[in-house]
Amino acid sequence: MPASKPVVARVNLDDRIICATFDQSTGRLRISEGAKVLHSLLPPDSWVAIASVSQSSGWGTRPSEADLGVYLRCCMSLQPSALAC
Q: Which UniProt keywords apply (predicted)?
């Protein structure tokens, strides 16, 4: 089975580009700014984090780019300085 392409969303935050990357083969959710990883979650935590803010039918296990965007915006509204969501 070929490796699946990661799902990626980017959001602008005060001239910073924050990126959420979800690896569908491992379930890892990584929040980064450039090469710096700000936060990383593994399943089931990654699934629950996405599902808690998303209305997707995939329950966080197969998020769309829009789902990740919602997750990033939610995190930024809670802790924009550290983005430790």
A: Plasmid
CB 27 within 8 A of CB 47: yes
Q: pLDDT tens digits, residue range 43-66?
A: 999 999 998 888 766 667 889 999
What residue segments make up the domains of the chain, in order of their start? Answer: 7-78
Single-letter amino acid code for the residue at 21: T
CA-nearest of 1, 22, 23, 21 to 10 is 21
Q: Is 80 within 8 Å of 59 (Cβ atoms)?
A: no
Cα–Cα distance, 39 to 30 (Å, whole number): 6
Has this prediction a pTM greater than 0.90? no
Q: Report whether 27 contacts 20 (CB < 8 A).
A: no
